[in-house]
Amino acid sequence: MERISNLILIDGDTRRRAAISHALATNQIHVEPFENISELGAAWPSSGVVLLHEQAGAISSLIEQMARHGEWFPIIAFSEYPSPPRIVQAVLDGAIDYVGWPITAEELNASLQRAIRRTDAFGHAKLREVMARARIDRLSRREREVLGGVASGLSNRLIGERLSISPRTVEIHRANMLTKLGASHTSDAIRIAIEAALIK
């Protein structure tokens, strides 16, 4: 079984942070405690699994921080007696696992091992998606529409007809879209759109 040496704990509750750190000390897991995501951003770790006390928007904020740093850490979310819909939403947002608090050290360690096993396949794909979405967010509405047309294989003329603009205007939007995406070619732009789940 693969050992985890570093746990990045993000939790605003001082007593709970201390309790988790103490519980895991016996398993020879080093816990790096942070009060919030901003504090983590200021002292970015080199590796580890994140144990995040889950609140509204916390997972999305953490993933955005990861995208900015270009590194992915698997996220295990936790909260007190979470409901099934809350767990499902957290996983959809990007958590690799969810545990209820209180939890025993043995249960938490098992969750950490599952997270490490699933990280390679899930984590890098999720990071690519988040980074691609961040690029897509830079586009204007019209540039997104042009990207959609390009991804559908339409010519500038056909995109123009669909959007009721001239082919020359499409060309201008297309050039701006490539620049904002940091794409050298149309194929790069399409790949970014696919990674952002903009197109299937």
TrEMBL record:
**Signal sequence coordinates:** none
What SUPFAM superfamilies does this protein map onto?
C-terminal effector domain of the bipartite response regulators, CheY-like
Question: Is Mitochondrion given among the entry's keywords?
Answer: no
An individual GO BP term: phosphorelay signal transduction system
Q: Which UniProt keywords apply?
A: DNA-binding, Transcription, Transcription regulation
Gene3D superfamilies on file = 3.40.50.2300, Winged helix-like DNA-binding domain superfamily/Winged helix DNA-binding domain
Residue ranges constituting the HTH luxR-type domain according to the UniProt record:
132-197
InterPro entries per the UniProt record, alphabetical: CheY-like_superfamily, Sig_transdc_resp-reg_C-effctor, Sig_transdc_resp-reg_receiver, Tscrpt_reg_LuxR_C, WH-like_DNA-bd_sf
Residue intervals of the Response regulatory domain: 6-116
PANTHER family referenced in this protein's UniProt entry, alphabetically: DNA-BINDING TRANSCRIPTIONAL ACTIVATOR DEVR_DOSR
Per its record, how is this protein called by name?
A: Two component LuxR family transcriptional regulator
Tell me the classification of the organism that encodes this protein: Bacteria, Pseudomonadati, Pseudomonadota, Alphaproteobacteria, Sphingomonadales
